Amino acid sequence: MPYSISSKVQETIDRIKEEAYAKAKAKEDDDIASGKKLFDGPQAAMLSWPSLSSLEDTAVPDEERFYWWHEDTVIVGTEQKLRCVRADSMRFSRGETTYFSARRFWDAFALIRALLLEDGATVEDFLRLGPTLLPWTFGILTLARRWDANGESHVLVGIRSKELAGRHVGTVSFPGGLVKPGETIEQAARRQMKEECGIELTGMCPGYAIGHHPNAGSTTFVSVADAASSGDVTDSFEWKGGKALWAPVASVLKAIEGDTTAMVDVFRKAGHDVNEGAPIAPDAADPARILLKYVYPA
Q1: DSSP at 12
Q2: For position 55, what pLDDT does the model report?
Q3: N or C: which end of the chain has fewer CB within 10 A?
Q4: What domains appear along the chain, each with residue ranges and CATH number?
């Protein structure tokens, strides 16, 4: 029998949400007073968790379809081993929320997850039910590739500015953001790249890897795309130091695996003040590893 939420657990969820909402409303005032940039507005919402689909499935309005790149593992003895990386055809229903509506329930996310797990749910159960319990946004991060004169591939990376009010401030991430109502994930990727970096994407590689925000109802799709071979990266308040930078793919992979030395050097040579060990944003690290190491290696 699939896990279902009892009336008693639902009462606790409702109380958690009420408390989180009140706390978040108060924090918004503090963030605005401290000068952080908060932009409310309509955002696309995930109404159901992605499920397998096929070409024979009938398309329905307000639905997103995509190919999901993920690792397929097998247990060998007591160890979990990688068998392959594969792409499955997926679909989910989408609707609309606002940034503030979703943000006000961020603090409820971890508490509701812990409540359901204690009640016997699995992590998969929580993800399946999550979009029905909380406003669940989804966004896109793009690994934009460009090759230098020596044939070495680079991707755009940056450190999220303290001027932002999100929960990944100070982490290394890739250009992107939330999807808006009425636009596809790919359209959002192209828009965000232009807004944050002034760079045109000339081609999107098929499929996405998926990351999960560890403490908010939000899912991150991560893609690989080719960037125009010319054009300078423009300034943006969203990045520490004013802009994202081109970093060798090899340095990004090393950083994901824990050795940030080479990537930190890229930022320091550009005059950006970066501490050793600057972390990759938690919703970006694993999807980027899968895509750059296995699916679209340089």
Answers
A1: H
A2: 65
A3: N
A4: 59-91 (no CATH), 136-298 (3.90.79.10)
